[in-house]
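Fill-in record for M20/M25/M40 family metallo-hydrolase.
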Amino acid sequence: MDTSDLPTAVAESLSANRTELFEFTEELVGYDTQNPPGRTVDIVEWLETTLDESALSVERFEVDPEKPNLIATLPGQADHTLCFNGHLDTVPFEERDWSHDPLGERSGERIYGRGTTDMKGAVAAMAQVALAYARSGTEPPVTLQFAFVSDEETGGDAGLTTLLETTDFDPDACVVGETTSRNGRYSVSVADRGNIWLTLEASGSAAHGSRPMIGENAIDRLTDAIGQLRSEFGQRELSIDASMDGIIEESVDFYEPEAGAEATQSLYRYPTINLGILEGGKAINTVPASACARVDIRLTAGVDTREALSGIRDCLTGMDGIEIIDISWTRGSYEPLGSSIVEASAKAAEHVVDEQIYRRSATGGGDAKVLRHEGIPTVEFGFGTQTAHGTDEYTTTEALVRNAISYAALPVLYEHSRSVDR
């Protein structure tokens, strides 16, 4: 692993304290922060104590006392701020399904537990980077912020939204520590997709199941509507800003080994439509008079949401008994290729792996989307495994070390990239 862009004292600190990094991870995973309910007060108190160094200023911000957020700040040489962001809550788990302790178990080079890869392992690496700079007395080239937040997994308001709405949190760039590696392929996520969530309701007329011809089957009407949505709106090529072309090209290259080139091209060039919930009917021998469906539509960043909504409504207009009763949406976001934080993050990743680093779009979206829409250049970048949200989730000691080294190099690379841009 290349540590040439790390200050010498920081590199030595990270090398000498690798065991501490693994212990940090196990400690964080040992706190049960399943969301819901998403209680993070205990883990925040531990981080607050752990980061109690004279060089670091640590502040807690909260609206919900059970879900506080923590910001640790280390002043730098330049009047610019680079933020490392990680969430402390996790998705739920069923302990009986696990063969390892979901609250942390070390086995060889693996550390098991809910949140190890999403994303307490990255948080542990960020905390150790903060301590490596602080304890060694090394002034970073830019001011560093470490924002550890609650309430990400359910998209609640107690986490990042609280920071944005109640504080002056406004870094010049941000790195979110989501795992962006898959099956030996490595990447920095520079974009996400928008979503439109529809609730469709179908009405019909009830009849006995033995005489369906005298009724109107609401479920049939609903599935016909979804079929039309897929065949018409789902086959319309998206109008995407040309600045996304390079990102889409690298995204296709990244996902092609799993899904194939054609399917991956379609993922970004056309809407994806998923029927997530279908409800209707009261008895097998009755023609249902009503039915309801919830549909998840995803759109590549740079697509005009208004145009997409208009296309959806046009597609469903005139269908008997079909009504859109609820609709919500988010817009996709992206950070252009060539921007300082994108190039610095890719170079930081190259310090710890020899393979190509793809600059690609995520298929979903999380806190990075929120930050970009607030005008904060943001990428997702982290090493881990593909076990996020799964049974026996784990990370590896190698991934933890890679995170720590690449995150520690990022301030130097980011400031250099900014200097070149100027």
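KEY FINDING: The chain has twelve helices and 18 strands.
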